[in-house]
Each structure stands twice: as structure tokens, then as C-alpha cells.
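Q: Here's a chain of 173 amino acids. Please give me its 3D structure as C-alpha cells.
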Amino acid sequence: MADFADRSLGIGYAGGSLILFVLLMVSLGVWYWSVGSVSVDTITSPKVEMFYWATILFSQTLGTALGDWMADPTGLGLGYEGGALVFAAGLALVAAGYFYTRVSRTLLFWSAFILTRPLGATVGDLLDKPHANGGLALSRFYASAILAAFIIACILFLSQKAGEHPGESQRIS
């Protein structure tokens, strides 16, 4: 969808990103108008789940378009490293918002969710694209292995806390 907006429609990364951002905002707006919340805690019916998956579709596609726009020479041309740094900085700001402000947790969730896709795409491209394109030219196997090892290390070394489903009144042992 991101490549379709950029290449087939010929509106460039900026135009495609803008259209996808508008679609994402419309998805969230209709979801909020229909249900009264866009929190993932409210996903308790097929209707809300449809809104959730539509929002996921637009946010992931927007993330792809944003990653391409940042990194590609025909976009902002920051390269894979520069794009990854921009999105990592955006996630750091979201984390700071979580720890040091009272900004809506739902807004922070969706902001972080949207930023993780282009971060992952730019890091993945950095690892496996050829040197001539600004990448490290690792095979997809090694790039995937490095990313998997990083994810596993984060799971093992960062503290985890079990969540509760909004409908649960007591935790079942």
C-alpha cells in the first residue's frame, strides 16, 4: 500500500505518508466516535476488533512509508542510520512522555506503535541492504538472527509485568 501510493500513484513518499496518516486518523476517529475510546483495553467485541485491525493496517503501512521517506534518497535522504535515529528519538520522546507527563496513555501507545514499524524497517534495511545502497550487506538470515537475538535479550533483561484483561476482576491462579 505504501509503495502503491508512492510509485503507482506517483505522489511520492510525502504524499503517500500524508494519505496514510489521514486514513489512520479517520480510522481512529470513527473508532472513537463509534465506541467512545480507542484504547486497546476496550477490544471486547468483534466490532471493536474490526476497528483495531483497520487501525493496525493503516499504522503499519504508514510506518513503512515513513521509514522509506526518511531513508530513501528520493525522500528526505537521511539513510538507514539517520532514519533509525529519528524514529528511535521519537520513541525516546514517547517514553519520556510516559514517565514524566500525564499525557494520555492511549495516545502514547498509538504513537509508540506507529514509530516501531519505521524503526524496525530502517534497522532491517540497514542490516541487509547492499553497501552501495547504504546497508551493511548482511544476508537476510543474519539480519533476522541479529534482530531476533536483540528481541530475546530485551525480553530476558528488561523487567516484565503481567497485565490484566479489563474484564477480569481477579487474577486466576
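Q: Can you summarize the key feature?
A: Helices lie at 2-8, 12-35, 46-71, 79-100, 105-128, 140-157.
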